[in-house]
Amino acid sequence: MNTKWLTRRAQLSNAGAQSVLTAKQFLGKEGNTPYLTPQQLLTLNDYGRQADIISFVHVLELSKQYQMIACSAPKPDRGGNEYVWPTFNRNGNSDGGKVLNIGNLFQFITDLYDRKFTVGFTYDDLIDEAEQA
Fold first, then answer.
1. Do 34 and 28 contact (CB within 8 A), yes or no?
2. Does the residue 1 lie in any domain?
3. What's the structural domain count of the chain?
C-alpha cells in the first residue's frame, strides 16, 4: 500500500500552525482581541455549569495533541445557551466537546480549525492569568 500521501498530509498538518497561542493572548492581555476577557473566564468558572467547564477543559486538552477535523453548526442546548461541538481526530477515533458561545469562543474554535495557531496553555494557566488581571 502506498502511504506517501499519508506521510505528506501528516507533515503538512504538523507544519500548518504558524504560532503558539499563549494564555495572555487568549485573554487579550497581549495582541488585539481577546477570545475571552479575564472577567468572562472567571464568571464562567465561578458561576457556569460544571459540565460546560469540564467540556471546555477537554477541548483545550484535545487541541494541544490532536487536529480538529470538524465542528458542528451553532445550536442551542436545553438551557437555551448557544454552543458548538468541535471534533478532533484522536488516533483514528473522533473525540470532542461542547464549547459555549461566550465572548469570542466561536472565533477561537474557527481559528483553531484553520490552524492559525497551536494552543500553548491549559485551562489552569488561563485561570492563573485571569486572576492577575
1. yes
2. no
3. 1
What pLDDT does residue 24 have?
Answer: 97
Q: How many CB atoms lie within 10 A of CB 27?
A: 25
Inter-CA distances, 63 with 13, 14, 24, 32, 106, Å: 13, 13, 17, 22, 14
Closest CA relative to residue 121, chosen from 13, 39, 27, 45: 27
- Residue 4: the pLDDT is 72
Report CA-CA distances (Å) from 119 to 6, 12, 78, 89.
24, 17, 29, 16
Find out whether 41 and 24 touch, Cβ atoms under 8 Å: no
Q: What is the pLDDT of residue 32?
A: 83
As averages over each run of 10 residues, the pLDDT of the chain (133 residues) reads: 64 64 96 93 97 97 94 94 96 95 96 93 97 87
Question: What local confidence, expressed as pLDDT, does residue 104 receive?
Answer: 96
Q: What is the CB neighbour count within 10 angstroms for residue 18?
A: 9
Would you say residue 122 lies in a domain?
A: yes
Domain span at residue 69?
A: 22-131
Q: Per the domain annotation, does 28 fall within a domain?
A: yes
